Amino acid sequence: MVTETDTTTQPRIPLTKDRVFSAAIKIADQDGLDALTMRHLAEELGVEAMSLYYHVANKEAVLDGIIDAIMGEIEEAAGGFGPKDDNLDWKSALRQRILTARSVMLRHKWAPSVFETRTTISPVAMRYFDALLGIVREGGFSYDLAHHGMHALGSRSLGFTQELFEPENPDKTDAEEATAMMEQMADQLPYMVGMMMEISHDDPDSTIGWCDDDTEFNFALDLILDGLERLRIAS
User: Fold this and answer.
1) Domain count of the chain?
2) Has this prediction a pTM greater than 0.90?
3) How far apart are alpha carbons 195 and 183 in whole angstroms?
4) Average pLDDT over residues 105-116
């Protein structure tokens, strides 16, 4: 019996490291980092779990690959890690580069926790930091001051900060409960209560961390850059 060939069947897309890392990012974006397991990753890719091990040794290798992929997104968003725009002074160029990195981090709000666990710096991240160093060197910084500046910026150079105190699963209820608790301790915490009453952080959709909204991030970034400019002029 002759059967008609199914011409609608699509050829299988080869499994590659790039596909693995893209699928891993998709899972983390949709379901959170805890949902990223080798089994879930294999299901997302439509392959057997063992097939993954031809491309990545383990979950740690997947996380390393995610870092490279996200740094690649930053590089693309920045239009490459080449020299700064000649029309921008060092401070504007560095600020623009860091805020570009932040825009990528805001798309992947789980990513900072991955960056903080890595023990090595990927080649793409090295190129990124070399570009930041190039911006300040061309702006008149000595290597010594540039070194201090990179330390002062810390993780902020990649577009995120580590808060002093951060709930495990922050939401508006957490902030409201914290405020109510402090109000009950107004006699013991007069300045904390005064601040909480005057300033509210009630827009979690714009944050990476509990109190790390764009206003606070930009404020601290500008504070550091202004201080570095003062030191550059004095040196």
Assistant:
1) 1
2) no
3) 11
4) 94
